Amino acid sequence: MRRWHQSQGVEFLERIGIREGMVVVDFGCRVGHYSIPAGKAVGSRGCVYAVDKNRRALVTLAQSSARHGVRSVRTIRNDGGTTIDLPDSSVDCVLLYDILHMMEKPVRMALYRDVARVLRSGGLLSVHPSHTDAFMPNKYFAGMAIEDVQHEIQDAGLLYQATMWWRISHDSGLMDSSVLNFRKR
């Protein structure tokens, strides 16, 4: 994962639209496979809020960030709910990578509403909708295609922008997969 953290992940996140100076939320960040490269992409003028309910994962992320020389990552422990404890219209990009399949639809819809609340106008929501019927379906995504996830997010008021295919981090390895990108009006 070292190459992912140092270069491949940074290149991927820059490709989706993360730039120096941005404020990014990595919701459900776990140990930071996206937070660390995002921290490199936003640089010292930006900030990455790494949000997770698991205290041990956040400690590991903080140690890993320091080891990689990334000072722009701030960890936030939540209670496992969908609230992003940041002010309205304060964020440029939210990452929901490999997290949505763990939530029932009403919970996901509440999360999308909170994402829309914290995003600035024109802000980016990037989603890795893993575990749909196309790839290791999970009980909350069983019977759902990627297009179903796309429509669900559009129904929450975010504008679909593009689907990107890339070799991305999943668990502790890399896999070819897609991400869906949306913009706040």
Report on this model:
The chain is an alpha/beta fold and 185 residues long. It has a single domain (2-183), classed as Rossmann fold, CATH 3.40.50.150. Helices cover 32% and strands 30% of the residues. It has helices spanning 2-16, 35-42, 55-67, 105-118, 146-155; strands at 23-27, 47-52, 73-77, 91-97, 119-128, 159-170, 173-183. Helix 1 (2-16) crosses helix 2 (35-42). The longest helix is centred in the first third of the chain and has 15 residues, at 2-16. It starts with a helix and ends with a strand. The mean pLDDT is 93.
Please state roughly what percent of the residues sit in beta strands, choosing from under 5%, 5-15%, 15-25%, 25-35%, 35-45% or over 45%: 25-35%
**CATH architectural arrangement:** 3-Layer(aba) Sandwich
Overall 3D form: globular
In percent, how helical is the residue content?
25-40%
Radius of gyration: 15 Å
Q: What is the helix/strand order?
A: HEHEHEEHEHEE
Oligomer: single chain
What class do helices, strands and sheet pairing give? alpha/beta
Classified in CATH, the superfamily is: Vaccinia Virus protein VP39
Uncertain parts? none
What key attributes describe this structure?
185 residues, alpha/beta, Rossmann fold, 7-stranded mixed β-sheet, 5 helices, 7 strands, 32% helix
How do the strands and helices of this protein lay out in sequence?
Elements: H1 2-16, E1 23-27, H2 35-42, E2 47-52, H3 55-67, E3 73-77, E4 91-97, H4 105-118, E5 119-128, H5 146-155, E6 159-170, E7 173-183
Parallel strand pairs: 1-2, 1-4, 2-3, 4-5
Antiparallel strand pairs: 5-7, 6-7
Helix pairs in contact: 1-2
